[in-house]
Design brief:
The chain is α+β, with helices and mostly antiparallel strands and 94 residues long. A three-stranded antiparallel beta sheet has the order 1-2-3, with helices on one face. Strands 4-5-6 form a three-stranded antiparallel beta sheet. A hairpin with a 3-residue loop joins β5 (58-60) and β6. The protein has a single domain (4-76), classed as NE0471-like N-terminal domain (NE0471 N-terminal domain-like), CATH 3.30.2020.10. It contains three helices and six strands, in the order βββαβββαα.
Length: 94
């Protein structure tokens, strides 16, 4: 599991991220803004109130949190099986 070490809010609901493996990337979360629990971000100032949680997740108050692995996938363009090799294995049949 990856962890976010540094985060910076950018214009347009984008985040500049640094992960614990040294990877740097930018993710665009504009597609989430204003929808469901992300309605909180309808006020851009709320989006800017981001912080990093104890497990390396991103947190906005007690309303929204995002998994660092999903952010890593967005930032790198990798697929889940690229960072979780066990997902590539064929299931065993009884």
């Amino acid at each position: 599991m990856r962890k976010v070490l540094k985060v910076k809010a950018l214009q347009g609901y984008r985040l500049e991220l640094e992960f614990d493996d040294g990877v740097h990337g930018t993710v665009d979360l504009g597609d989430l803004a204003g929808k469901g629990v992300f309605a909180l971000w309808s006020d851009y100032r709320a989006f800017e109130q981001i912080r990093i949680g104890t497990s390396g997740e991103l947190i906005w108050g007690d309303k929204v949190d995002l998994c660092p692995d999903s952010l890593y996938l967005r930032a790198t363009g990798k697929k889940p099986e690229d960072i979780f090799p066990a997902l590539r294995q064929e299931p065993a049949h009884a």
